[in-house]
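Before any further analysis, backbone shapes were mapped to integers, which produced the following:

***
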Amino acid sequence: MAPPTTFGELLERHERDLYAYALRLTGQRSDADDLFQETFLAAFRAWPPPRSDQLRAWLYKIATTKMVDRVRKTRHVVSLNDLRLVAPDGNSALRTDLAAAIRTLPPGQRAAFMLREVEGLTYREVGAALGCAQDAARGQVSQARKKLRQALR
């Protein structure tokens, strides 16, 4: 698929995935709406992107940065009640426990975990989205998994 040549094409191609990511990060539709709009406004202002071969990662990076900024400003824990994670069907207790454990992760680890495990990005894409090296992204995900395993024992 050819990279989008206009901002409108970029929006059409990635809006659904980016909104789902914003919803998973914030846990509430109103906050996800705001994060989604802030992300695309920042992307519009920065258009064209520095690298056209990593547009998806570029958008995730903007969204992640906006989310971390929001958490720092408000200092409230992100609600993940609507989070849809892989859990055995019907095991809402496990999903609830996992969502609670994810809330305790630092924002960077939470974002790395969500990008890798929920959004399915590669470590390279996670690193690009978080503005760090691939190995650093792998480390963030590893630390998040370790903390989650300990919390779920």
Observations:
- Residues 7-151 form a domain with the Butyryl-CoA Dehydrogenase, subunit A; domain 3 fold (CATH 1.20.140.160).
- The helical segments are 7-26, 29-46, 55-74, 92-103, 107-118, 123-130, 134-151.
- The CA atoms of residues 92 and 98 lie 10 Å apart.
